[in-house]
Write a structure and sequence with these properties.
heterodimer, A: alpha+beta, 2 domains, two-stranded antiparallel ribbon, 15 helices, 52% helix, B: alpha/beta, Rossmann fold, globular
Chain lengths: 452, 222
């Protein structure tokens, strides 16, 4: 029997105590593992979101937020200057408007006011978005408006910055031409029995349905999209732009182009890069990352403290036995090695149990963290409510690779995690038994002569 | 074999200085069975600790096999304890979660004796002290006090030490068993050519000794 086997056997001297220690230590190791998994998952997701966001800059009229605020919309003249800036590879423009059912259009809104809409309606005056005229006061009879967005990009999805927009029937229109046709959201189409080729009334004229789209979002599915030139003409907003999405040739030039746009447009526009928008949206993930990191450190420290206190207790209890071993010729190294093996045995048992527990607990805990992080963080995608076109693009931008971020995290136990876990177990055992080992070296062999 | 000159051990206890061993000089011949007697607190166990290099002397010399152990460093002291000394304690001090056989093998393992050889010798020593068969595989808690002390004696002889130091080896045993243990120690010492120094309160045991040293207040009085 050697030092190692004696150390392992010593770990089982008191089965009840060993079981308790292993159980508590296993929880600590499981927590460390879960937090490590959470940390890696969140880090990967943040990197993925950041890389998917792209090199875009949103230019919106200063002082205008959707259909709230005040000031002037941007003009095509302003934006032509922006389009001519170096490193700007592409620019898409959108114009937003609202139609009041029964007054401006024969369409019926597919959204109902609900408590939120009615509350907004109750606040007469500025910013009320229900049923009133454009940027004006609310009407007495509240009716949900229907939002319309004009786009100039051949791809509606690109123009709205939505990755998962699908044309479910019909086809896209040519956004560069004043065709007077529209793509209608699935909810609005269903409410009004619209199909490709059918027409509805808006702005006192017939508008033809070119296709039906599904954005995966109820708000967007309750609106319709037209070529920007058609909307400018129909809504008497020639040369007006609600929002422009500027694409930059490289992410390295994002900030310099943003500065150039801000300089060019002065106080006419609010200029935001996609990275800045993303930073806001992923803030809850950053919070989870921080929580995970500190919890990981805390769990490792707790594990080390548990094994440290255990070994401290064991060494104090076996002081006389250590004296005996020294008296019969054991060196400090031999005795210390025996106790380190004992600590390692406890930690390995706890490590195995903790890994199993952590494996099953990782995703539920990660989901709990995500829900907690999301609720305590930003409003997240969807916060736009029904504020209109400007926010529609922002909202849609949020959906672009970020929308489902908070609910799309999965912890995966790989070899790297298991390696980290094994290292953590080793570190806990060594750190936890270091001071007790030092105490062993200080035990005098004369302790053996005590007859207590 | 064992020569002690002007040995002192002093330490502080609260505000006062305690002279546990106060200038002792003694000579123990090779192969003898010597006994140290004295009242509680006379310094017997402290003297035994110094002889076994379990504690450090304040001054004086201890020569074992013509080697002054008071001059040895830590690693050499470990080697000295391992190779030249065998201990027998009043409380047996066997390692509780090891079997009798494993306890006897332990000092030999520390001395680097190969596994096969140490098992063979441990079984032989245990048989010599009367621990045979299934008892060799028992843990100390499943052995009587006398049997545990026999195992402790077998353990002390594992590395063929020059000197066996026994601290009240019969202190926890009845007189008949104590007598058997002393007879056993003496016989084994004779067979293994080992010198024995034992501390005892038992006058009957003292009468069996080749040489008796009496301590009083840390000093040798006879």
């Amino acid at each position: 029997m050697g030092t190692v086997s004696r150390g392992v056997r010593n770990a089982f001297r008191n089965v009840i105590r060993t079981g308790s220690i292993v159980f508590i230590l296993a929880i600590s190791i499981a927590m460390a593992l879960v937090m490590l998994l959470a940390l890696k998952s969140v880090q990967a997701k943040i990197a993925s979101v950041k890389s998917s966001v792209g090199n875009t800059i949103t230019v919106a009229p200063a002082g205008v937020r959707g259909f709230e605020g005040g000031g002037d919309l941007l003009t095509t003249t302003d934006l032509n200057a922006v389009g001519a800036l170096p490193h700007v590879s592409k620019m898409t423009e959108t114009l937003s408007d609202r139609l009041t059912p029964g007054t401006d259009t024969n369409l019926q809104a597919s959204l109902t006011p609900g408590s939120f809409g009615n509350r907004q309606q109750g606040r007469a005056g500025f910013g009320v978005e229900g049923g009133g005229g454009r940027f004006g006061a609310a009407q007495r009879t509240f009716t949900m408006p229907i939002m319309v967005t004009g786009v100039d990009d051949l791809s509606v999805a690109q123009a709205l910055n939505i990755d998962n927009l699908k044309i479910t029937s019909g086809s896209e229109f040519d956004a560069t031409k004043d065709t007077g046709s529209a793509l209608v959201g699935t909810d609005l189409a269903a409410k009004n029995n619209l199909k490709p080729g059918s027409t509805f009334q808006g702005y006192g004229t017939n508008i033809t349905v070119a296709g039906i789209y599904d954005s995966g979002n109820r708000f967007l599915n309750s609106s319709f999209v037209m070529p920007i030139s058609s909307l400018e003409r129909l809504s008497n907003q020639a040369g007006q732009v609600s929002t422009a999405i500027v694409q930059v040739d490289s992410i390295d030039n994002l900030n310099s182009v943003k500065d150039a746009i801000a300089s060019k447009l002065g106080n006419k526009a609010d200029v935001t890069t996609s990275q800045e928008q993303t930073d806001q949206i992923i803030q809850p993930l950053e919070n989870i990352k921080t929580i995970s990191l500190y919890s990981l450190i805390g769990a490792l420290v707790a594990g080390s403290v548990i094994i440290f206190l255990t070994m401290l207790m064991v060494v104090r209890e076996r002081r006389k036995e250590i004296g005996v071993l020294k008296a019969i010729g054991a060196s400090n190294i031999k005795i210390t090695a025996q106790f380190v093996v004992e600590a390692l045995s406890l930690t390995v048992m706890a490590g195995v149990l903790g890994t199993v527990v952590g494996f099953f607990a990782a995703n539920p805990i990660l989901n709990a963290l995500v829900v907690s992080g999301a609720s305590s963080g930003q409003g997240g995608p969807g916060g736009g409510g029904f504020r209109g076109g400007g926010m529609m693009v922002r909202f849609a931008g949020g959906l672009n690779g970020v929308g489902n971020t908070l609910r799309d995290l999965h912890a995966v136990v790989g070899y790297d995690i298991l390696t980290y876990g094994a290292l953590a177990v080793l570190v806990i055992a060594v750190v936890g038994s270091a001071i007790p080992a030092f105490m062993i070296s200080k035990v005098r062999p004369a302790e053996v002569m005590r007859n207590d | 074999m064992l020569k002690v000159e002007k040995l002192r051990k002093e330490f502080k206890s609260g505000d006062s200085d305690v002279k546990a061993v106060n200038g002792i000089s003694m000579h123990v011949p090779t192969g003898s069975f010597s006994v140290i007697v004295g009242k509680s607190g006379s310094g017997k166990s402290t003297l035994l600790s110094l002889l076994g290099a379990l504690d450090q002397a304040s001054s004086g010399t201890i020569e074992v096999d013509k080697q002054d152990i008071t001059k040895l460093g830590d690693s050499k002291l470990i080697k000295y304890r391992r190779e030249k000394i065998g201990f027998v304690f009043q409380n047996y001090n066997l390692v509780p979660n090891l079997t009798a056989l494993e306890n006897v093998m332990l000092p030999m393992e520390y001395a680097g004796v190969p596994a096969g050889a140490r098992k063979e010798r441990a079984e032989k020593l245990l048989a010599e002290v009367g621990i045979t068969g299934d008892k060799q595989k028992r843990k100390p808690t499943r052995l009587s006090g006398g049997e545990q002390q026999r195992v402790a004696i077998a353990r002390s002889l594992g590395n063929k030490p020059k000197l066996i130091l026994a601290d009240e080896p019969t202190g926890n045993l009845d007189s008949a068993t104590g007598k058997l243990i002393i007879d056993l120690l003496r016989q084994l010492a004779k067979d293994e050519k080992t010198t024995i120094v034992a501390v005892t309160h038992d006058e009957a045991i003292a009468k069996l000794a080749d040489k008796t040293f009496t301590l009083k207040d840390g000093k040798l009085v006879s």
